[in-house]
Design a protein that fits this description.
The structure is a single chain. By secondary structure, the protein is of the alpha+beta class. It has two domains: 11-180, Thiolase/Chalcone synthase (Peroxisomal Thiolase, Chain A, domain 1), CATH 3.40.47; 184-332, Thiolase/Chalcone synthase (Peroxisomal Thiolase, Chain A, domain 1), CATH 3.40.47. It contains eleven helices and 14 strands. It has helices spanning 27-30, 38-45, 59-74, 98-106, 122-135, 159-162, 211-215, 225-246, 264-274, 285-288, 295-305, and strands spanning 3-5, 11-19, 24-26, 49-51, 83-87, 112-116, 141-149, 167-175, 182-190, 198-199, 222-223, 256-259, 314-321, 325-332. The strands form three sheets. Strands 1, 2, 5, 6, 7, 8, 9, 12, 13 and 14 form a ten-stranded mixed β-sheet that branches. α3 crosses α4 (98-106) and α8 packs across α9 (264-274). Bound molecules: oxa(dethia)-CoA (UT7).
């Protein structure tokens, strides 16, 4: 069911960068807008604040700044990039793709650009796809971005969802040539049997926007939090184990885990089930909440900047999201 792959020549991360909007929305300010409390949010999720984009900032604006930082960190010319993948569920518009908008703004050549929609697993799905395209030999250097303006699809009257999400973007430059952390293996999967567990009901072809859909708040994210919580723990544990097995590695070989940043209790449950100590899990969800496709690259960039990874250490990146989708990547530093 899952597609597992290992490249002969590993792709490497030449550079990484991230960007979050300036505005901080703390739990206390949020509790003046909706019936919640700092105590509830912190104890049930681990989140203390999240970043919120300005009205005139779109997903491509967040992605642009993250991409510039990744390009700078990779020390490459923009002319070297020949593939752009943007993972997002909050594109600037239905079409053209956010990747096409970015191509122009970043001053790239007329290279292949597309958006990839795998919700919170989107960035890791995009690494998997980018690696496969680079492995074909037809592409040399990919700009892979996870970017979201989750605040644009939040129902600010629904306390069960609006406290959880935030805005941000993370980007990586991936190539088969050059020096950097190696992408050793990938695993991506999906189970489309229960799509309404986490979805945005209206705005697509099944329910185009009408006065009725707007009045019924159908353009906002809806989630069955309890079911998603249980699936997230089970699926991220399974994906981690399968990816390690496929690459002849054991749980004991793992030095770090960068999990999808949704809820610290999900991470703690995963840690317990995998028997990996919590101090090997990197979390920044306290300051960002769940930024969907931006979650993993935002955490990875922060961990790299903190000097978390020593040479030769192994990290598992693992995510889970709407679809349901999941994806995991092995990185050797
Ligand atoms: O990226 C993947 C997508 N998302 C996730 O991975 C999220 C997965 N789910 C979760 O993280 C958790 O299920 C939540 C944080 C969403 C909810 O936590 P929970 O411990 O499962 O709470 P619950 O849904 O069982 O709600 C417990 C109570 C309810 O009240 P009653 O019915 O017991 O009176 C809720 O109405 O807490 C209430 N509640 C709140 N109270 C204050 C729900 N949201 C809030 C809130 N503030 N923000």
């Amino acid at each position: 069911m899952n597609q597992v792959s290992t490249s002969n020549t590993s792709s490497v991360i030449l550079g990484i960068g991230s960007y979050v909007p300036k505005k901080i929305l703390g739990n206390t300010e949020l509790s003046s807008r909706v019936d919640t409390s700092d105590e509830w949010i912190q104890s049930r999720t681990g989140i203390t604040e999240r970043r919120i984009a300005d009205n005139d900032q779109s997903t491509s604006d967040l992605a642009f700044h993250a991409a510039r930082r990744a390009i700078e960190s990779a020390q490459i010319q923009v002319s070297e990039i020949d593939l752009v993948i943007v993972a997002t569920i909050t594109p600037d518009m239905a079409f053209p793709s956010t990747a096409c908008l970015l191509q122009h703004r970043l001053g790239l050549g007329k290279v292949a650009c597309f958006d990839l929609e795998a919700a919170c697993s989107g960035f890791l799905y995009s690494l998997d796809v980018a690696d496969a395209m680079l492995s074909s030999g037809r592409y040399k250097c990919a700009l892979v971005i996870g970017a979201e303006k989750m605040s644009s699809i939040m129902d600010w009257e629904d306390r069960t969802t609006c406290v959880l999400f935030g805005d941000g973007a993370g980007a990586a430059i991936i190539s088969k040539r050059g020096y950097g952390p190696k992408l050793l293996g990938f695993l991506s999967g999906a189970d489309g049997s229960n799509p309404t567990l986490l979805h945005q009901p209206a705005g697509g072809s099944s329910q185009p926007a009408t006065e009725y859909t707007i009045a019924n708040r159908q353009h906002f994210l809806k989630m069955n939090g309890k079911e998603i919580f249980k699936s997230a723990v089970r699926v991220m544990e399974k994906a981690t184990r399968e990816l390690l097995t496929e690459n002849d590695l054991d749980i004991e070989d793992v030095d770090h885990v960068i999990p999808h940043q949704a809820n610290v209790r999900i991470v703690e449950s995963m840690a317990q089930r995998l028997e990996i100590p919590m101090n090997k899990f990197f979390c920044n969800l306290d300051r960002h909440g769940n930024t969907s496709a931006a979650s993993i690259p935002l955490a990875l960039d922060e961990a790299v900047k903190k000097g978390l990874f020593k040479e030769d250490e192994l990290a598992v990146l693992v995510a889970f999201g709407a679809g349901l989708t999941w994806s995991a990547t092995l990185v050797r530093f």
